[in-house]
Amino acid sequence: MKPENKLPVLDLISAEMKTVVNTLQPDLPPWPATGTIAEQRQYYTLERRFWNAGAPEMATRAYMVPTKYGQVETRLFCPQPDSPATLFYLHGGGFILGNLDTHDRIMRLLASYSQCTVIGIDYTLSPEARFPQAIEEIVAAYCYFHQQAEDYQI
């Protein structure tokens, strides 16, 4: 990422919001705006700890799905044995950051509130994956589960 695209976000937020951020995670250092992609990802994972606390418990299964690029990890959250529908969830992070662990709680909450099975897809991130790899992995995962819906009870 170019330095001119990196903003010192904590310097730009209101004093009230700084209080909220410091209250939520007082031990978290400032975002490494000039850090490498690996450092940004590591920080994002640390930052997401707070947001993942207190997630509802439910049956969770992990599966590796074949794609033309290799295996992609997926995670199924099943709030009830016979869910009426299935929701496919793509984690945030701009296709550069994030994974199934950083968005675990939101997937559990979606499953719990909707009573639907939620399938999270851990597509390959950029810059390691060049467009359209992540999109093709997502489509491959969707097709895989759609074609085998009965086997996965979705």
From TrEMBL:
One annotated GO molecular function is: triacylglycerol lipase activity
Q: List the Pfam families hit by this protein, alphabetically.
A: Abhydrolase_3 (PF07859)
In the record, biological process GO terms are:
triglyceride catabolic process
What Gene3D superfamilies does this protein's entry cite?
A: alpha/beta hydrolase (3.40.50.1820)
Q: Please name the InterPro entries in this protein's record.
A: AB_hydrolase_3, AB_hydrolase_fold, Lipase_GDXG_HIS_AS
The secretion signal range is none
Keyword annotations from UniProtKB, A to Z:
Hydrolase
Would the keyword Hydrolase be found if you checked this record's keyword annotation?
Answer: yes
Q: Has keyword Transport?
A: no
Any Gene Ontology CC annotation: cytosol
Domain Alpha/beta hydrolase fold-3: where? Answer: 87-152
Please state which protein family the record places this protein in.
Belongs to the 'GDXG' lipolytic enzyme family.
Q: What is this protein called?
A: Acetylesterase
Query: From what organism does this protein derive?
Result: Escherichia coli
